[in-house]
Write a structure and sequence with these properties.
The protein has about 325 residues and is α/β, with parallel strands linked by helices. The protein contains eleven helices and twelve strands. The chain is globular.
């Protein structure tokens, strides 16, 4: 949450230079507070596991968050019952008239396919285009990050020599960036993918910043400077046993796959995996929800459609009579 201080206090400038959010009495008195509305586009096959992982992280803040779960209707779901989808999920047609402060696009085990070969690709393109005017900040995860960069900017994916799977140390390139407030110099993160996005192409996007990477994983976190789009190539949301479940699944299917690195104690897959990324996951999702969503989204979310590429700094003093009627 922001720190409220006396207006014009000398410390204000220093704190702002460190990207620490502060507000004076005037703004505090006029700031409107309302629940955050989030949409989770769940593309993972084990939807219940993924929704639990993400909701756990979103709940670790003092903010009230209303969540809608979305599934792609153009894909035949095999690992989740239709009853679960009917009870807890919504289709794009059911949400497209609404506005959301934030959206999360999960990964998907389809990175070996060309984007256009994915059966729900056209539906996902429609969601991405819609989000420009109906969502303030979107967090793209793993394949969701690669898909978002390709759809929005034509950034191609690059096939890796072999599957990148395990727990890897990633850098913090900018300690003052709000998404990495409270982080140490590095953090560990699960990665599980066959491809990545073209780093050279991303470096040429002038309104983007690379926030985290490593020699082993390449890019880890990149963001649009106005925080309207955040891309993470790892899986901070993974549970302790998720990589083990994927490893055992692949072995049972007869797929030759290496053990996840830096995961099993003494590299023994019969031992309980080590959990070393939980604190980083909690902090990253909390920072995104607080700094990229809560502190920036317009109080009246429908105003997103007026300025689809803008940064916002709205509070109740900005409201017009028309806005007030929408509350």
């Amino acid at each position: 949450m922001p720190v409220k201080i006396v207006k014009n206090l000398p410390a204000t400038k220093i704190l702002q230079e460190e990207n620490i959010f502060v507000m004076d009495d005037e703004r505090a008195q006029n700031q409107g507070i309302r629940p955050m509305n989030l949409l989770i586009v769940n593309l993972m096959p084990r939807k219940q596991a993924t929704e639990t992982q993400i909701l756990r992280l979103l709940s670790n803040t003092p903010l009230q968050v209303n969540v809608d779960l979305l599934y792609t209707t153009t894909h035949a779901v095999k690992n989740t019952t239709q009853g679960h989808l009917d009870s807890f999920y919504r289709s794009f047609d059911e949400v497209k008239l609404g506005y959301y402060d934030g959206m999360i696009v999960t990964g998907a085990p389809v990175e070996t396919l060309e984007f256009e070969e994915v059966d729900y690709w056209q539906e996902l393109l429609e969601i991405f285009e819609w989000s420009k005017t109906h969502v303030y900040s979107t967090l793209h995860i793993c394949w969701g990050a690669q898909a978002g960069l390709y759809a929005r900017y034509g950034v191609d994916k690059v096939e890796l020599p072999q599957k990148l799977v395990g727990i890897y140390k990633n850098s913090v390139e900018n300690h003052k960036h709000v998404l990495f407030r409270g982080f140490d110099d590095s953090f560990t993160c699960p990665h599980s993918r066959y491809t990545t996005s073209d780093e050279q192409a991303i470096s040429q996007l002038t309104d983007f910043e690379i926030l985290s990477k490593s020699e082993e994983t390449g890019l880890s976190v990149v963001t649009k400077k106005n925080l309207r789009e955040v891309y993470i190539f790892g899986h901070l949301e993974y549970d302790r046993d998720t990589l083990n479940w994927e490893y055992q699944r692949d072995k049972s299917a007869g797929i030759t796959v290496d053990k996840p690195v830096n995961y099993f104690p003494e590299d023994d897959d019969k031992k309980k995996p080590q959990m070393t990324w939980a604190s980083a996951a909690s902090l990253f999702f909390s920072n995104w929800l607080n700094y990229a969503v809560y502190q920036r989204t317009p109080y009246v979310a429908a105003r997103l459609s007026e300025h689809p590429e803008s940064d916002f700094d709205f509070n109740l003093t900005n409201l017009t009579s028309a806005d007030s009627a929408m509350l």
